[in-house]
């Protein structure tokens, strides 16, 4: 959307009458005929460009004005800003029958790029495209190493091969392929010099450039790419960037190899100003390949490096956005390479499989999944890769969660439409996923209508026809539901007026029993991955339940007990879900009601966050959990109850104290800290305010637990044995036989603690 000021200017430009435009063109003509063309002419040309570009239809300009625009564009003495404006205005009028431009005698590369851009905007008119291409290559071939940079001409070459693929000769194609190799692979690793104003205090030492860096700030040790960063860039580094931007189009133009060629003994580096004095044996062998094959080899190396660089954590948002764009382009280039030369396929597969796994876990990079899916669609059968899991994820989760991204919606639907002939067995997954695809249509509406008109015949069959008709008729309802979803308006809130309905209450009474049956069945076969998914779901849904009377408390009792069952089945859950558990504890969501879910989570942390259950457990993890639980305990005991922070159940407080003590016994630097906290808790539990809030019995339970834990911590080695026992201690004999270790240890600690307390002054 434009600002109000910009909208006003555009409206004025669109509504200017032809007569007024004619007068303005006369004024522009007079300004361009002056010997000294100044700021007034630049301002007038900017206004004229706005007028001709603000409408979809072509505005008629006076022929005298058009002729002067062409003359100014071709004048060697004309300032570059003026030439840019003249070229932009002439391009907006394309195609134009009265154009008399020619690039045959233009040698300045910047001016040639502007003139060529106007000529190419006319289309392939009277072989104009071929003529432009031939002249551009004559300039490239005649350019001396110390001459001006060819960078402005590279976009012209890309446009030429797009409009007329056969416009270039074989020797010209080989020439540019050689230069692209040098620009891609051998750009400098030192930053460019800053432009200095000079002066007495300017010294060469102060202007020494540093090395280029990676997006995460590390010094670059591999070759320069478009993702390398620095304060200033050299010309060969800019050529590197430009070469990558045209690489895919050039590879498609140069086509697959015609067959094995003779070694190119005359292949010399075309890189001006670079030093190629030391080359490895592999590089030397590579340079003996024909130009197109050598370019493919270097393009493969470049894309592999970009994929590695895309995995670095960027320090700036702009670099992070560039990473995503370059990742998409790198995968597309690899796809072209593998189509042109199957030998690249097996060198690429492992890299792209790992990339796909990484992208599936990063919602910020979801658009990069489409070219990866395209790659496996093109090459999965040849590489014997099962692509069904890839498309299952692509067609279900992405539309369901990211329907509100207009760019992703267009690219996704276009991907489906363009690849219908290639889907094969996966077409069934696409058909069954049409309700998710319809979310794109429901949210983005008219811009996708034509795409879906083309896509629908392939989605509908006898099995989906009835459901699809319902979905089409209810499409406005789907849009309304998605709108509610994006406003944080859960379905539970919309249905809340019916929560007291007798039929709803009856149904709610059946859910806990069914949940018990569900978990009894699923725990018989659940592996580690499924157990992790179920545990995450319990954390997520524990505070997202329909508020039917008594329903939440009953369900929480089941969920909390089953969370402990899952942890017992897979004790590594606590270490693997460190981030999610810390978020759950830090949010304080489980304090509401009886606190049974929070109690189970805190107990599981104390029980299983130990190297005896998972060797990956670290002291840093223990300290993080300790800090999170300590903050929660402080918050629930020191704050007054409110709507956002209700009164904390005493069992939550006692479990928090016990878990903190367990963690301190495993990281003994924490013992003084938890001992001080437990002393404060014991004192707090004795206060009348606490007794009145929780009741005398509950306050007494908190006080007793704090005293017991303090006594244990007075002997850290015994505390560690009691609070973090070996797995064998869970056997019944350790609790039934008074002569075995655990009861004996507890009795000893109790007697010592009582004896020490008796020696203290009253």
TrEMBL record:
Highest rank taxon of the organism: Eukaryota
Q: Where is the AP-5 complex subunit zeta-1 ARM repeats domain?
A: 322-439
Record's Gene Ontology CC terms?
AP-5 adaptor complex
Q: Which InterPro entries match?
A: AP5Z1, AP5Z1_ARM, ARM-like, TPR_AP5Z1_C, TPR_AP5Z1_N
AP-5 complex subunit zeta-1 N-terminal TPR domain: from which residue to which, for each copy?
1-281
Q: Where is the AP-5 complex subunit zeta-1 C-terminal TPR domain?
A: 487-752
- Protein name (database record): Adaptor related protein complex 5 subunit zeta 1
Q: Which organism is it from?
A: Equus asinus asinus
Its taxonomic path starts at: Eukaryota, Metazoa, Chordata, Craniata, Vertebrata
């Amino acid at each position: 959307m434009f600002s109000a000021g910009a909208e006003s200017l555009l409206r004025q430009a669109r509504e200017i009458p032809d007569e007024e435009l004619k007068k303005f063109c006369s004024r522009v003509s007079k300004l361009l005929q002056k010997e000294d063309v100044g700021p007034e002419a630049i301002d007038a040309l900017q206004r004229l460009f706005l007028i001709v570009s603000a409408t979809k239809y072509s505005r008629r300009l006076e022929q005298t004005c058009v002729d002067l625009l062409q003359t100014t564009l071709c004048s060697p003495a004309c300032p570059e800003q003026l030439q840019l404006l003249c070229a932009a205005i002439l391009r907006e009028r394309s195609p134009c029958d009265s154009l008399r431009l020619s690039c045959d005698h233009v040698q300045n590369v910047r001016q040639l790029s502007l003139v060529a851009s106007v000529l190419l905007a006319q289309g392939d008119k009277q072989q104009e495209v071929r003529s432009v291409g031939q002249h551009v290559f004559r300039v490239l071939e005649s350019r001396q190493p110390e001459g001006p940079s060819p960078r402005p001409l590279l976009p012209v070459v890309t446009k030429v091969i797009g409009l007329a693929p056969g416009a270039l000769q074989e020797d010209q194609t080989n020439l540019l392929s050689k230069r692209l190799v040098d620009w891609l692979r051998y750009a400098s690793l030192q930053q460019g010099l800053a432009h200095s104003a000079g002066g007495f205090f300017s010294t060469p030492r102060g202007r020494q450039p540093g090395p280029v860096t990676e997006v995460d700030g590390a010094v670059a040790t591999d070759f320069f790419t478009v993702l390398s960063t620095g304060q200033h860039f050299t010309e060969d580094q800019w050529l590197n960037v430009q070469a990558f931007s045209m690489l895919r189009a050039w590879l498609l133009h140069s086509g697959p190899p015609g067959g094995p060629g003779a070694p190119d003994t005359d292949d010399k580096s075309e890189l001006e100003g670079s030093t190629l004095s030391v080359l490895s044996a592999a590089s030397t062998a590579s340079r003996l390949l024909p130009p197109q094959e050598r370019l493919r080899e270097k393009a493969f190396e470049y894309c592999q490096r970009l994929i590695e660089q895309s995995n670095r954590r960027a320090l700036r948002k702009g670099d992070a956005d560039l990473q995503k764009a370059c990742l998409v382009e790198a995968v597309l280039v690899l796809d072209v390479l593998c189509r042109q030369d199957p030998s690249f396929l097996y060198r690429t597969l492992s890299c792209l499989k790992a990339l796909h796994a990484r992208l599936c876990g990063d919602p910020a990079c979801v658009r990069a999944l489409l070219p990866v899916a395209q790659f496996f669609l093109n090459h999965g059968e040849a590489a014997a890769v099962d692509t069904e899991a890839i498309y299952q994820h692509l067609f279900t989760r992405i539309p369901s969660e990211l329907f509100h991204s207009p760019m992703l919606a267009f690219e996704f639907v276009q991907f489906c439409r363009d690849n219908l002939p290639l889907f094969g067995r996966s077409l069934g997954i696409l058909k069954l996923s049409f309700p998710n695809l319809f979310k794109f249509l429901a949210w983005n509406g008219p811009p996708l209508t034509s795409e879906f008109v083309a896509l629908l015949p392939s989605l509908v069959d006898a099995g989906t026809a009835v459901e699809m008709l319902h979905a089409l008729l209810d499409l406005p309802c789907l849009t309304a539901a998605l709108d509610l979803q994006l406003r944080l308006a859960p379905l539970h809130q919309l249905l809340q007026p019916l929560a007291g309905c007798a039929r709803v209450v009856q149904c709610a009474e059946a859910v806990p029993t069914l949940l018990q049956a569900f978990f009894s069945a699923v725990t018989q076969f659940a592996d580690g991955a499924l157990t992790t998914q179920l545990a995450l779901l319990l954390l997520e849904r524990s505070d997202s339940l329909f508020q039917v009377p008594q329903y939440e408390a009953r369900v929480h009792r089941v969920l909390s007990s089953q969370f402990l069952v899952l942890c017992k089945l897979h004790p590594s859950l606590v270490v693997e879900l460190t981030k999610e558990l810390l978020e759950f504890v830090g949010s304080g969501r489980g304090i509401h009601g009886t606190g049974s879910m929070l109690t189970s989570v805190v107990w599981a942390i104390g029980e299983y966050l130990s190297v005896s259950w998972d060797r990956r457990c670290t002291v840093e993890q223990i300290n993080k959990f300790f800090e999170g639980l300590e903050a929660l305990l402080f918050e629930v005991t020191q704050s007054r109850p409110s709507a956002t922070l209700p009164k904390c159940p005493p069992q939550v407080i006692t479990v928090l104290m016990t878990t903190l003590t367990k963690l301190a016994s495993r990281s003994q630097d924490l013992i003084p800290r938890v001992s001080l906290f437990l002393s404060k808790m014991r004192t707090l539990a004795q206060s009348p305010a606490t007794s009145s809030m929780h009741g005398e019995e509950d306050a007494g339970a908190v006080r007793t637990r704090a005293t017991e834990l303090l006594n244990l911590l007075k002997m850290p080695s015994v505390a560690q044995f009691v609070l973090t026992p070996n797995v064998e201690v869970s056997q019944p004999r350790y609790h039934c036989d008074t002569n075995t270790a655990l009861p004996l240890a507890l009795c000893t600690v109790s007697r010592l603690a009582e004896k020490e307390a008796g020696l203290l002054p009253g």
